[in-house]
Write a structure and sequence with these properties.
Oligomer: heterodimer
CATH topology of chain B: Jelly Rolls
Helix content of chain A: 55-70%
Distance between the termini of chain B: 46 Å
Largest interface: A-B, 79 and 69 residues
CATH class of chain B: Mainly Beta
Radius of gyration of chain A: 18 Å
CATH architecture of chain B: Sandwich
CATH class of the largest domain in chain A: Mainly Alpha
Shape of chain A: globular
Number of helices of chain B: 6
Number of strands of chain A: 0
Strand content of chain A: under 5%
CATH topology of the largest domain in chain A: Rna Polymerase Sigma Factor, Chain: A
Strand order of the largest sheet of chain B: 1-2-3-9-4-7
Order of helices and strands of chain B: HHHHHEEEEEEEEEH
Structural class of chain A: mainly alpha
CATH architecture of the largest domain in chain A: Orthogonal Bundle
Number of helices of chain A: 8
Number of domains of chain B: 1
Structural class of chain B: alpha+beta
Order of helices and strands of chain A: HHHHHHHH
Strand content of chain B: 15-25%
Helix content of chain B: 25-40%
Chain lengths: 194, 219
């Protein structure tokens, strides 16, 4: 055993495969013991995420609890074939933060007749998604700090590109090209595999 | 049918983070409904956000929070997910969700307003003050009516097609234009072109002297 697991997390942190397993148990049996590990991993991180927008500690705590309650309630709906656990929990936290600020984010409806479905067949998709999540993490680790920093400001701080540019003291075009370069790299890392 | 003109990373990352205003988001989400490739790009962005969440700073202590959580969920009985309102869905539709709900129906239900020269529009109401959202119907072979706009513009084709310079935009294609770009999209012959157009909201007069004379001049 090395001191880092395949997700590049420190020992004691949960791997994505373990998260998928725990969520499946929660979804099936509503097992609080299985959820405790998920909670203890994500609660302190989601509190940080929520605290970015509100300086009020209690409000951040409440939004964190709301997020973890939604994760608990929706565990049975988590589909390993549709993505990885941390991405799924991020989207739940994001939507709760959007609601808290009374904004609207129109979304697709996959059951709509006009919806154009993916054309890939689903053989071994669970495995593939887990593998993709790991590839993505590996590729994230190779991004230059300046690109990761811009992504963090966009996803966590919800800053506009012009605000990011002003804060970093760089031209707007530089922010945009860092975003483009980062995702071009992540996409090619995944597509090289498929 | 394959889509050739996609949403840029610029818009997509703001949609992924939730910071994109409702009007722009409506165009992005309606494009996503028609474009599996961009849904995959979105999934990669959300995957990146998830990876950042895993590495986020940890804040606070968990014992108390976990006790609170357990006490809170002990009382909640999770309700079975009821099989949705699939009955109210039509068998086919031209306008994808979320757009169809915003305009209150599919093409046949729309109440168009004439813009002149055979073109029609429907204004779509959103809660954001940053954008102006409309459905446009351009007669086959005719140019899109003069529309001045400041800043960015997104145009999503839903039926028919239009040409802008050398580029052809058909169903699902999204054109992203900038305020300083002079362009004259023209509907292709043979079929009216229906598209969703989102532009930056017209600028308000900000000078106090203009605000003062505004009511007098009725501008």
């Amino acid at each position: 055993m090395t001191n880092k697991n395949s997700d590049g997390l420190a020992p004691g942190d949960l791997s994505q495969a373990e998260m998928v397993r725990l969520l499946a148990i929660v979804g099936r049996d509503r097992n609080a013991d299985a959820f405790e590990a998920v909670f203890r991993f994500y609660a302190p991180r989601i509190r940080t995420f929520m605290a970015v927008k509100t300086q009020d500690k209690q409000a951040a705590e409440e939004l964190m609890q709301e997020t973890m309650t939604a994760v608990w309630n929706k565990a049975a709906q988590f589909d390993p074939a549709r993505g990885n656990v941390s991405a799924w929990i991020y989207t739940i936290a994001r939507n709760i933060r959007i609601d808290a600020y009374r904004r609207r984010r129109p979304e697709i409806d996959v059951n709509d007749p006009a919806f154009v479905p993916d054309d890939v067949a689903g053989a071994d998709q669970d495995f593939q998604q887990l593998q993709e999540a790991q590839l993505l993490r590996g590729a994230m680790a190779t991004l230059p700090d300046e690109q990761v920093d811009v992504l963090r400001r966009a996803f966590f701080d919800e800053e506009s590109h012009s605000t990011i540019a002003r804060d970093l003291g760089v031209p707007l075009g530089t922010v945009k090209s860092r975003i483009r370069l980062a995702f071009a790299k992540l996409r090619s890392a995944l597509d090289g595999q498929l | 049918m394959s889509i050739k003109h996609h949403i840029s990373d610029d818009f997509l990352i703001d949609y992924a983070s939730g910071s994109l205003a409702e009007g722009w988001s409506l165009a992005v989400a309606s494009h996503l409904a028609l474009c599996p490739e961009c849904r995959r790009r979105l999934a990669i962005m959300e995957g990146a956000a998830g990876a950042l969440l895993d590495k986020a700073e940890q804040n606070g202590s968990e014992d108390q929070a976990w006790s609170r959580f357990k006490a809170r969920t002990a009382d909640i009985r999770v309700e079975e997910v009821k099989p949705g309102q699939a009955a109210s869905r039509p068998a086919t539709a031209v306008l994808p969700e979320p757009l169809r709900s915003y305009v209150g129906g599919d093409l046949a239900d729309l109440k168009w307003r004439a813009l002149g020269r055979g073109a029609y529009q429907i204004l779509i109401d959103t809660k954001d003050k940053e954008t102006q959202v409309r459905l446009l119907r351009i007669p086959a072979g005719k140019p899109v009516p003069e529309h001045t706009h400041e800043g960015r513009e997104l145009t999503l084709v839903l039926a028919g097609s239009f040409r802008d310079g050398d580029d052809l935009f058909a169903r699902g294609d999204l054109e992203e234009a900038d305020g300083d770009l002079l362009h004259t999209p023209t509907a292709t012959e043979g079929e009216d072109c229906i598209c969703l157009a989102v532009t930056e909201a017209p600028l308000k007069f900000s000078s106090w002297i203009v605000r003062l004379v505004q009511p007098i001049l009725k501008i």
